[in-house]
Design goal:
Length: 253
């Protein structure tokens, strides 16, 4: 079902104690202005996940996410964390294919396929990230790249599997740079993604898909971005590290 979602991707920030303090601030702050219509997702580092998932259980309108998972169930993969473990920690979502994973850890669309399948197997909802680099946009290849990211990582799914997918459009040139896509650029790409999904899975699947925008989305520009017809919320990096900003963004619909 299409939902309004604001997800905070903490990336590799916050010690365990800082993370607990931040999530407490977010929950307390939100109590003063509850917006249950918006699902707020917190994606902390792995070590925070069980404690934060537990804290969020007693708050209304919240869920937790991992930022990544390994694509095998278990085994000799030193330093890795499986989707099964993430589910057992109480999380509900997994961010998959973030551009930082693609850039620094060599994740390909092919690896994303395996991670998406594993997440679905564990009843976790993948937030699958797509987005073009600056050179792709300058060369007018942005639609082609995003289409390929959709086709190669998602289009093996059945319709019922696909119904459990959330997509985040994150132009790489906008992530952590302070440069946001204009509302028109975001809307244009979100509509393109929705149409691609409708072509593959039917109009109902397209209409029910939640598509989040990510890339320097903050308390000042969220309203304009979220007002776009095909933008269903945001995947927020830097601005999710301050409780007040995260809540302002979640209340920007
Ligand atoms: P940013 O990151 O909001 O700091 O640009 C977004 C993301 O990477 O999800």
């Amino acid at each position: 079902m299409r939902k309004k979602i604001v997800a905070g991707n903490w990336k590799m920030n916050n010690t365990f104690q800082e993370g607990i303090k931040l999530v407490e601030e977010i929950i307390n702050n939100e109590k003063t202005k509850p917006s249950n219509a918006v699902l707020k997702i917190i994606a902390p580092p792995f070590i925070h996940l069980a404690s934060i998932s537990d804290k969020l259980k007693s708050a209304t309108g919240f869920a937790s996410a991992a930022q990544n998972c390994h694509h095998e169930t278990a085994g000799a993969y030193t330093g890795e964390v499986s989707a099964k473990m993430i589910a057992s920690a109480g999380a509900n979502f997994i961010i998959i294919g973030h551009s930082e994973r693609r850039q620094y850890f060599g994740e390909t669309n092919g690896v994303c396929v395996k991670k998406i399948d594993m997440a679905l197997k564990e009843n976790l909802i993948p937030i699958y990230c797509v987005g073009e680099k600056l050179e792709d946009r300058n060369d007018n290849n942005h639609f082609k790249i995003v289409k390929q990211q959709l086709q190669e990582a998602l289009f093996h799914l059945s319709l019922s599997e696909f119904n459990n997918i959330v997509i985040a459009y994150e132009p790489v040139w906008a992530i952590g740079t302070g440069i946001t896509a204009t509302a028109a650029q975001a809307q244009e790409m979100h509509l393109f993604i929705r149409n691609e999904i409708s072509n593959k899975y039917g109009n109902k699947a397209g209409a029910e898909l939640s598509i989040l925008y990510g890339g320097s989305c903050n308390a000042n520009n969220a309203k304009e971005l979220f007002a776009c017809a095909d933008v269903d919320g945001g995947l927020i990096g830097g601005a999710s590290l301050k409780a007040a900003d995260f809540i302002t963004i979640a209340n920007s619909f």
